[in-house]
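Today's session is about reading a structure prediction critically. Students often jump straight to the picture, but the first step is always the sequence itself: look for stretches that repeat, for charged clusters, for runs of hydrophobic residues. Only then move on to the predicted structure, which in these notes is written as discrete structure tokens rather than atom positions. Here is the chain we will use throughout the hour.
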Amino acid sequence: MPLHLVRMEVAGLRAMPETGSFAPSPIQAYLQQLHARFAGLTAGQVATYIPELAKADPGQFGIVIATVDGQVYEVGAARASFTIQSISKPLVYGVALEDSGTERVRAAIGVEPSGDAFNSISLEPGTGRPLNPMINAGAIATSSLVKGATPGIRRERVLDAISAYAGRQLRIDPDVFESERSTGHRNRAIGHMLRNYGILTEDPEAALALYFQQCSIVVDCRDLALIAATLANGGVNPVSGQRAVAAGHVGAILSVMTTCGMYDFAGEWTTRVGMPAKSGVGGGIVAVLPGQLGIGVFSPALDERGNSVRGVKVCESISADLGLHFLQPPRAAAATVRARYTLERVRSKRRRQETEVQCLDRVGHGALVFELQGDLRFATVEPVIRAVADAGDALSLVVLDFKRVNHADGAATTMLARLVERCAALGQHLVFSRVRRGGMLDTLGNEVDPHHVGAMSFQPQLDLALEWCERRLLQANGALLAPAAAAEDLAAHQLCRGLTPGEVAELQSRLQRSHFEPGTLLFHRGDPADALYLLRRGEVSVVVMLDGVGVKRLSTLTAGMCFGETALVDARRRSADVRADSAVECDLLSRDAFARLEAEQPQLAIRLLRNLLQGSNDIAARLTAEISATEV
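Below is the predicted structure for this chain, in token form.
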């Protein structure tokens, strides 16, 4: 097996099947592959110390990713219900910070990792203060700091807060609550120790009841991902828009999740996954990548530390495959998509005949262009991939412009490879423009299934990529005109619209025919603007030389068009070069000849100027649309 396929197998990123009309989003496809990769893992046991948890099906397995802009990807048992258990601890810690204040909470509960199991009795020597809010001792103390005049009010305060994180109204499972309360002898002992040290100031039963109730809240894997995404989004649920916790407390919550959320596995987790996280013995794990996304995994079979076996493996893989370790952050960059538009709004510099223009006006929405910038990584390329997926069958061409991209990491390259394969499955084509060679996307060709490489191409300039897409759209719609070999009839020339036969003949008598070989410069930038050129045969391009960049095309014209218009109204020098792209014949209307025409046939001169003005207006309108679409 080739090396790149071996690596993809290990990473769980096999190419999508060649057949089948359905092509999921590359992100969705990745999660499906990841789910299939670990579904057969049978290690671990469901929790049995709480009788109701022993009833869990160890085969249930769900994975969900939620982004901070509200996109949710889910696979497997994403909507299967289970109880939140210890994942409630950081959320209730946020409630306590809001209700009792940071000073009061910190006086009662530390923030140092214990290195012990979740149910260890880790109290600070001398003070009896729990070492952190993630172990049971700290969580019970935290529950005691939730404000409310009655136990019912405190219960609803916690339930409403966690519901806000999830973006829907949650409930407490009464059977699990009773099972926890009736078997929670160790937790009850911890409560009384806390009361002995004065950490709890009242009978511990009230705090214990609330703790058992918060652990018995029913959630699903999608809820977990949105809870994590809410923390990633500064405390605001990215789907509902509801604030679940004050932004000023999010840092404290994520900090204790980082150092203490995985108990005696916290150091290994930070090294191998590198995201603030929290596990629960119900089989759930949440992981947070601040500012980007949240991950939820559900699988009830636990390892010896009480963490979901599949959940740990999944989070390790996602972090490694997608480059999400928070201690290896990418360089800061502006928003990845600098501009987004279709060929309906922005065209190449090739000026086209009216029938082609009308066709592109009609079907140009089928080609979507993204001008990218900054660093490409999973979180920054995901919105682009999603936009392409959301466009569905209406899209036939996608252009990704890399001029302003500084770096594309391995995860971004892999996701782009999956996007190529998805485009291939849908009969779409992906065009990469201005990709700098040497490190950026160099492995893309190796990562794309060989059967799908025909669905991507590279263009050295964005303008050429746009022209390539125009040609594909025009061909697909039967509107691509053969290059005009010649404009034999002067009356059909753009300059002569509306002229009478006599006026056409009069103009013809004042024109001078010139011939140019391919590659010849018809005039140079800086030459005197001494004549208007009527292109009668062949093709020319208007270009400028840019220091250190090379040649930039301003427009390409074919037979029946004209250029050099300023010669008739302005004696300044030429502002660009005009190059013959093929054998060219032009009729020249010199500045002197036009001056005589103005004197002898003023109405004809006015008609010619009006036609030139109409052409300039068309160009100005197109440029205005382009600027509005591309400038930010």
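Discussion point for the tutorial: The CA atoms of residues 44 and 265 lie 16 Å apart.
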